[in-house]
Design goal:
The complex is a heterodimer of chains A (1072) and B (458). With 1072 residues, chain A is mainly beta. In chain A, 13% of the residues lie in helices and 44% in strands. Among the domains of chain A are: 95 residues, Carboxypeptidase-like, regulatory domain (Immunoglobulin-like, Sandwich), CATH 2.60.40; 105 residues, no CATH class; 175 residues, no CATH class. Chain A has a 22-stranded antiparallel barrel. In chain A, strands 10-15-16-13-14 form a 5-stranded mixed beta sheet. In chain A, helix 4 packs across helix 6 and helix 6 runs antiparallel to helix 7. Chain B is mainly alpha-helical and 458 residues long. Chain B has 2 domains: 207 residues, Serine Threonine Protein Phosphatase 5, Tetratricopeptide repeat; 178 residues, Serine Threonine Protein Phosphatase 5, Tetratricopeptide repeat (Alpha Horseshoe). Chain B is 46% helix and 6% strand. In chain B, the strands form 4 sheets. Chain B has a two-stranded antiparallel sheet with strand order 2-4. A two-stranded antiparallel ribbon of chain B has the order 3-7. In chain B, a hairpin with a 2-residue loop joins strand 5 and strand 6. Chain B is globular and about 105 Å long. The chains are: A mainly beta (1072), B mainly alpha (458). Chains A and B meet through helix 5, strand 31, helix 12, strand 35 and strand 36 of A and helix 1, strand 1, helix 2, helix 4 and helix 6 of B. Strand 35 of chain A pairs antiparallel with strand 1 of chain B.
């Protein structure tokens, strides 16, 4: 070890001698970790005779000016051995040896800090520098594209991200556990300010995760915040940045028909009588689009053909996407400020931080802001007794009056439809214009003439008349006592209370459509006098909701640490943990709300069915009076043991027993024991090890079990509510009983190799894992005659295997120039092993890649109906029935078997990773990141083959390529569109092989450019970093030929369907 | 030394923790979700809205009282509604949740859970009336559901073959692991009768709301059952028993026929309703659909107030608006006094008591006609009386649950009343002759697959 250090020092010395000699009076030194060669921030560097003290910045650099030689230099840093040397002006890099022997990184498991050297398990550390590379408001966003083993699922809504795939079939149970400092964080993750984060550790295998027991099967993310340090002068750092996004590209979305195409479809449907029922409807008076009104007027002879054509020509010019971009969207702009003060004396250390984020969202008029305040202190009360306290306060606020995203249906004529593309939401001068909403305009004309409230809907007016605020406040109070009983024994007691309150205020003012509509519906007009009475009073509608989360944690543990000579080292800990998490919530609605005075009307008649306009009777929806409450309790014991022999062999073991109030059975049946064993062999410490080019080589292995506390019930439960018919309390059946219910278990085998080359230029790790999900809950289908459709039982199992490569290579390493590359490559293969229920072929073909279990298959997979082309005579899509091309869709669907379907493969990437390059030239830093995903498939969207879908919700650009005449089948794969609807025909096409694409792509994720100024000032502590950051730059290569971003798939008819917005950030980081 | 003390304290702590822990971990995770264990819980299950809602629509769409224009028929999506309307062989296509089957068994499971749970309770004397009511309610709902299922999934009752005709699986226990085959039609009806007989003994004469069955409701249902079984004396007896408790008829002269809906809602209180229940809503209801059979409409003479109370005209075409739910949709699926008068009249006529039968019928109809215009009907013989009663039954109970469908099934056995239904949709003629197998719905495929019971052949 030492030998390398010297070799390294001499090497650097030679390189840098000439340049340093020229500036004999000014010195710059860089402090690096001797093991990882990473910069050490906040190392105190003292030139004793010159009485100069400087603190290294984030890149480990310290500067001195005008110094007198000779002098001696002292470098101290937390967790490193202090260096005392004669100052040699030719030495520009100092390497510090980490404490605890030669261990390099400290792994934070949330229960303890563990030198990575002793860690047998799979941990991934994201250090401060890497974490801060990406600029974001949210902590988790910063992990995307840099973290081995983590996959962000941009295209499948079930869960935002996974660590090493998914080993449960329960969608709700698949989230990794998030730990903030010592305790699980229960609140919303966006409450944590990333600027407060020091580092992130991911725990991925059994050794690490059995520490967290029954909630750790999906991995654990430990977020460690910055701390003050003892004996450290005050450090002030200030960060500010501004991110600006480009305009949302609504034109990307292929789910669109131009006005003329849409009118064409409406015209066809009109001629076929599709609208007859609506046009002749004199009861509910459904909304009729302007074009259908015109066509109807023409049919009835009230307008001329010339007039009709002029009107239609005008409407043909409109483009809803332009209207939305102009009036309902804006450029994103995020401002972030963070100030941090930290330091410490010999008995006290502190950190105070303040953060403020102010974000303008992409939907116009919407914004959110967040304020974070933190105070952390640590006191050495006695030499052996330490007290730490933390207060963390977050207040965030979202103001979102615009609840009308592009392709959302909040402004559509009827739910589940889309606004017609020729709609005008504002005139050329930006003045709001009404669009069709719930009722036909002729009806509205007639009743408005009678004296009803205006009954038109205009989206811009509605936003102006809406106040929609959500405020969340989080308070975390944490305290801990640590007592070192003897040198070997330490006792710790920690307590945390987390409180989060979310308040929602949704006010629709008196003139909002929502309020006017309700008032009008219930208003009663005396036909003789024309006077109105209002059973539902005029005024605004105020909705308020509150939800509270209170979680309490208590943990006590004893630690033991002993070394005998240099050969044996024993570490152990044991403890207990009690946790309770309680949530409560309620909401209420006030009618007739007068915002100016804050008064509402409460003595309404909620019991009687009242006549409503335009037709029928209804009751005023009573304000809900229910209060929700959930309570989760956990009680755990745990123990951890580690033994090292000459640091060459390490053996670890952990065990944990969890109990919870989840399953209404007897407590002793709820307890679930989990354990792990691990070993580490540092081969390079063996005498026979001779590979001089690879001086470090370690082999690790762990095996053990984690749990998954799924929320299911072993007894028949009923859920209480209030009857809508009678107002009595009523109970509905919630689940079928299963007295055999157990927790899910995941057994993980992890093998790893860590290596580092002679100069440290190449270092990294390779891991292989095998996760076996056991006792997984599955919904077993019951015959309907039991009264239940399914019940939850253990019995399914899955198998996930994968490789993780993390390779760092320093391509260039010179004094003024560095070029480092990092390659992260993950592979993952998952498979359902046991699953009782046989899903029908129709079930697994009709998905967008959701989890439909089939033994032997990936958890998420894409299947399709084989495609036999288009029938040239009529444009019908053709499939195969008993091997013969056929258009008998009902039979094709009914007769489908798994071997007659096309199995494409996994719907989630089977390999992915990133290639990051960091350049440093003098004061410049430059970094860029490429992300790739591959080995998976997705279903691309297309047009519905039923005309009536086109005017409802399913428009798509493929309309232009539809089969119309013989010969079109040679040009495209889009069949003809028909009326009346044939659902089976459209289903066949939607799920046919012709619409399945490969998901592989390579994405240029981001670029970061920075420039460092300083240090300067009296004590040379001041430095300034300026940086610019470009995110979501674009796709460099994709396997599909349709130009689809596989992360923004348009198959699911969600709102927006637009790719992640490209943003540019400018910022500065000031250290004082 | 010191070290030993610490471990001692730790052990004491752990021991105490274990003691308290069991209790601490018994807490409910969700305040609103409970394992039913008290009389109040079972009563709440029996008050669930679901028990009085979602009584299928296939039987209503299958009658020829309603029809749709081709445009309206086409505008709806494929599926059970479209297929049910034209008596297609395959009704459900890929739909798996069928109100007529799954929904009924869910209601039956709720009843079974209550019946089993109630037996395990220790009941104090002062709780006994409530215990009786809840048990009677559970028995009533179970009987009501099995009765409905027999009308959908089994052939009409024939005394000669009832022992071998296939009924439905008779699930009488809450245990989901029990596998059952299809019981015979006779066994099913026996179960319904025995549940109702028990319910009559347990149910109170009055309940707080009409969604809770009363003694009269159980009597009425039993009368309906005996009508199906063609045991006329029993039908007459139970209809009379029910009418003895509640015989109110609304005088249609007191209603505002011009109102969009003339009848009051459940909450306001409909005097004729004995037991309130609703059908499922179909997308074919609402607006100006479905249209009503105009021949039948024309048979209501001008002085017959039902012409305006039951119907409104749209472009000269009649649309039914007379649901006893007091709502535009869904249709009424419960039991009302008007039906009892008709059961009683028919049962009397079937027993040859023509004058008594006409007397009962006249006491109903006089409330339906404009004041002072009604001329009491008479019959020359029992057959004439029966024919008149059947005609009036058709006119009094249109779109009431599956009653019209049930009447078609049972009356088709009698050549005097048998008729073939005809519909024309998109230029195609559809016919449903008497005793056609399509009068029996197929059982959902998933049930056949999982429990292996025999399917109905259509």
């Amino acid at each position: 070890m030492r030998a390398i250090f010297r070799v390294r020092a001499i090497y650097c010395l030679c390189l840098t001698m000439s340049s340093v000699l020229l500036h004999a009076q000014n010195y710059e030194v860089k402090i690096l970790d001797a093991e990882t060669k990473t910069p050490i921030e906040a190392a105190a560097v003292q030139l004793k005779k010159n009485k100069q003290l400087a603190i290294s910045d984030a890149s480990g650099i310290v500067k001195f000016t005008r110094i007198q030689l000779p002098d001696s230099i002292q470098i101290t840093a937390l967790n490193y051995r202090t260096v005392n040397l004669l100052f040699n002006p030719q030495t520009t890099i100092y390497y510090l040896q980490p404490f605890a022997g030669e261990s390099e990184v400290i792994v934070q498991t949330g229960y303890q800090s563990l030198p990575k050297e002793r860690a047998t398990g799979s941990f991934t550390q994201i250090d401060n520098q890497l974490f801060n590379r990406r600029i974001s408001t949210n902590v988790l966003d910063r992990l995307d594209g840099i973290t081995p083993g983590v996959l962000f699922n941009k295209n499948n809504g079930e869960e935002a991200f996974n660590i090493r795939g998914r080993s449960t079939l329960e969608a709700g149970a698949s989230r990794p556990l998030i730990v903030l400092d010592n305790f699980p964080f229960e609140g919303q993750i966006n409450q944590i300010n990333p600027n407060d984060v020091e580092s992130i550790t991911l725990l991925k295998d059994a050794a690490a995760a059995s520490i967290w027991g029954s909630r750790a099967a999906n991995g654990v993310i430990v977020i460690t915040t910055r701390k003050g340090r003892l004996n450290q002068p005050l450090q002030i750092s200030f960060t500010q940045n501004l991110s600006v996004g480009v305009m949302s590209n609504l034109f990307y979305n292929r789910n669109y028909l131009t006005s003329s195409e849409y009118i064409e479809a409406e015209r066809l449907l009109f001629d076929r009588g599709f609208y007859n029922a609506s046009l002749s409807n004199t009861t509910t008076r459904p909304a009729i689009s302007p074009v259908v009104e015109l066509l109807n007027q023409f049919r009835r002879g009230t307008i001329t053909e010339a007039f009709l054509n002029t009107e239609l020509d005008n409407l043909n010019q409109e483009d809803l996407r332009k209207q939305f971009s102009q009036h309902l969207y804006q450029r994103e702009a995020n401002q972030q400020y963070a100030l941090q003060l930290r330091g410490g004396s010999d008995k006290h250390s502190y950190l105070f931080s303040f953060g403020y984020d102010d974000n303008k969202e992409r939907q116009r008029f919407n914004q959110n802001s967040r304020l974070t305040l933190q105070a952390q202190q640590s006191f050495k009360l006695r030499p052996r007794l330490e007290l730490t306290t933390t207060l963390y306060y977050v207040a965030s606020k979202q103001n979102r009056p615009n609840s009308f995203p592009y392709r959302g249906n909040a402004l559509s004529p009827a739910s589940s439809t889309q606004l017609y593309p020729y709609a005008q939401i504002a005139d050329a001068g930006g003045n709001p214009l009404p669009t069709m909403k719930d009722y036909r305009s002729s009806y509205l004309d007639s009743v408005e003439a009678l004296g009803f409230q205006p009954w038109r809907f205009s989206v811009l007016d509605e936003i102006a008349q809406t106040q929609h605020e959500e405020q969340t406040r989080t308070l975390i109070a944490r305290t801990g006592l640590k007592y070192r009983i003897t040198d070997a024994w330490t006792a710790e007691l920690h307590y945390q209370q987390e409180y989060q309150q979310a308040l929602l205020l949704n006010l629709k003012l008196e003139n909002s459509y929502t309020a006017r509509d309700l008032v009008n519906r219930f208003s009663q007009r005396n036909p003789t006098t024309g006077a109105f009475t209002y059973p539902l009073p005029k005024g605004g509608i105020l909705e308020q909701a509150q939800s509270d989360l209170n979680s309490q944690n208590l943990r006590g543990q004893m630690q033991y640490q002993q070394k005998w000579s240099d050969a044996h080292e024993l570490n152990g800990m044991a403890g207990f943990e009690i946790r309770q998490r309680k949530t409560t919530g309620f909401s209420r609605t006030v009618y007739g709300y007068e915002a100016a005075y804050g008064i509402g009307i409460s003595n309404l008649n909620y019991q009687t069915s009242l006549p409503v306009h335009p037709f029928g009777t209804a009751m005023i929806t009573a304000t809900p009076n229910n209060r929700t409450e959930t309570l989760n309790r956990f009680f755990s014991y745990y123990a951890n043991l580690s033994y090292s022999y000459h640091k060459r062999y390490t053996f670890t073991a952990s065990a944990r027993s969890d109990a919870a109030n989840l399953f209404g059975v007897r407590a002793n049946q709820k307890r679930t024991p989990l354990w792990s064993l691990g070993g580490l062999w540092d081969i390079s410490k063996e005498s026979f090890y001779k590979l001089s080019w690879l001086p470090h080589l370690k082999i690790r292995a762990t095996y053990g079990f984690n749990g998954n506390a799924v929320n299911a019930n072993s007894l028949l439960t009923v859920r209480f509510g209030t009857s809508g018919l009678t107002g009595f309390p009523m109970a509905t059946l919630a689940s079928a009983p299963n007295s055999e219910l157990r927790w899910e278990k995941v057994g993980t085998l992890n093998l790893g190799v860590d290596f580092s080359s002679l100069s440290g230029r190449l270092h990294g790790s390779i891991e292989w894992y095998r996760k076996r999900g056991l006792d997984l809950l599955q919904e077993t289908v019951l015959p309907p005659s039991t009264g239940f459709s399914s019940f939850s039982g253990n019995g399914a199992s899955t198998l996930t295997t994968g490789w993780e490569f993390l390779i760092n290579y320093a391509v260039v390493r010179k004094k003024n120039m560095e070029w480092n590359m990092q390659l992260v490559l993950n592979t993952l293969k998952d498979q359902v092993i046991d699953f009782v229920r046989t899903n029908s072929p129709a079930q697994f073909v009709r998905t967008t890649g959701n989890l439909i279990a089939k033994p032997g298959n990936p958890l998420f997979s894409i299947w399709s109906y084989p495609w036999a082309g288009i029938d040239p005579s009529n444009g019908d899509p053709m499939g195969y029935l008993a091997g013969v091309p056929s258009n008998n869709y009902t039979s094709i669907i009914a007769a489908a078997q798994s071997d007659s379907l096309v199995f494409h493969g996994s719907a989630r990437p089977t390999f992915w990773g990133n290639l990051r390059q960091d350049f440093q030239y003098k004061r410049w830093g430059f970094s860029l990141n490429l992300i790739f995903k591959g080995g998976y498939y997705f279903r691309s969207g297309s047009v519905s083959l039923n005309y009536q879908d086109l005017v409802l919700g399913r428009q798509h650009r493929d309309y232009t390529a539809r089969w119309q005449t013989k010969g079109d089948e040679l040009k495209s794969n889009v069949p003809s569109i028909i009326y009346p609807s044939n659902v089976a025909r459209n289903d066949f096409y939607t799920y046919s092989a012709v619409l399945v694409e490969r998901g592989d792509h390579l994405r240029f994720q981001d670029i970061r450019l920075s420039y460092r100024l300083g240090p300067w000032g009296k004590k040379h502590l001041t430095s300034l970093e300026l940086y610019g950051y470009l995110n979501n730059i674009g796709i460099l290569w994709r396997a599909n030929k349709k130009g689809i971003d596989p992360d923004t798939n348009d198959f699911v008819l969600g709102i927006e369907n637009i790719p992640a917005i490209r943003t540019a950030t400018f910022g500065l980081k000031l250290h004082l | 030394m010191k070290r030993k003390y610490y471990s001692f304290y730790l052990m004491i702590f752990l021991f105490v923790a274990c003691q308290k822990q069991e209790q601490w971990l018994e807490a409910r995770t969700n305040i609103a979700s409970v394992v039913p264990s008290s009389l109040k819980d079972y009563s709440a299950i029996m008050d669930a809205d679901f028990l009085v809602r979602s009584y299928g629509y296939l039987a209503i769409l299958g009658t020829d009282h309603i029809y749709l224009t081709d445009a309206d028929y086409n505008a709806a999506f494929n599926g059970p509604e479209k297929n049910g309307f034209i008596w297609a062989k395959d009704v459900y296509e890929s739909f798996t949740s069928i109100s007529e089957w799954n929904g009924m068994y869910q209601k039956i499971a709720m009843s079974n859970i209550c019946l089993e749970g109630l037996e395990k309770l220790t009941v104090h004397n002062n709780e006994l009336p409530e215990w009786n009511r809840v048990k009677g309610t559970a028995l009533f709902f179970r009987a009501f559901c099995y009765y409905q299922m027999l009308q959908h999934f089994a052939v009409p009752y024939e005394a000669a073959s009832a022992q071998t005709d296939l009924g439905v699986p008779l699930r009488l226990s809450a245990d989901v692991n029990i596998k059952l085959g299809r019981s015979s039609v006779k066994d099913c009806y026996d179960q319904v009768r025995s549940d109702l007989t028990q319910a009559i003994a347990l149910l109170p004469a009055q309940t707080a709301v009409k969604t809770r069955p009363t003694k009269a409701a159980a009597e009425s249902l039993l009368a309906r059952v005996y009508l199906m079984l063609e045991q006329w004396d029993q039908a007459e007896k139970h209809a009379a028993m029910a009418l003895a408790t509640q015989s109110t008829l609304i005088d249609f002269n007191t209603l505002n026929a011009a109102a969009t809906i003339a009848f009051p809602t459940l909450q306001v209180g409909h005097a004729e309703v004995i037991f309130y229940a609703e059908s499922s809503s179909s997308s074919y209801y609402g607006g100006n659909r479905p249209l009503f059979d105009s021949t039948l409409y024309r048979s209501y003479v001008n002085n017959d107030l039902r012409r305006t109370v039951f119907f409104r005209l749209f472009n000269g075409l009649p649309i039914f608006k007379g649901f006893y739910t007091g709502l535009a949709t869904p249709p009424f699926s419960g039991i009302a006094t008007n039906e009892l008068y008709l059961i009683r009249a028919e049962a009397l006529a079937r027993q040859g008591l023509k004058d008594q039968a006409m007397g009962v019928l006249n006491s109903l109809l006089i409330k339906r006609w404009r004041n002072g215009t009604y001329i009491p009907l008479t019959a020359v013989d029992a057959g004439d009386a029966l024919a008149k009663i059947i005609t009036e039954r058709k006119k009094e109970l249109p779109l009431t649950g599956s009653l019209v469908w049930e009447d078609l099934r049972r009356l088709n056995k009698d050549p005097r009343f048998a008729r073939t239904l005809r519909k024309r949709v998109n230029g195609v003629f559809y016919e449903l002759p008497p005793k056609d197998p399509r009068y029996v719905l197929p059982i959902p495929d998933i049930e056949i697959k999982l429990s292996g019971i025999p399917q109905n052949i259509r």
